[in-house]
Input
Amino acid sequence: MSNIQAVSKELLDTLEILQALPSLSTFALAGGTNLALRCNHRESVDLDLFSGATVGLEGMEAIKTEIASAFGDHIRLARIENL
Output
């Protein structure tokens, strides 16, 4: 990531934590944050993660569990049925 000034320290820290989660191993950073880090064309405030793999309900549950464990009380997760 070459243009770290394109994102806040908090967003970069969040991305690094997410990259370490086994359930997100098939996901890649996409969208505006990816472009902002590569081109420094604007500040970015969100993360878009995409996977070419089929995740399924079990995969979503694993992601939810790992994110909840990694971030604890600092995050509010939507119910999977609502996604």
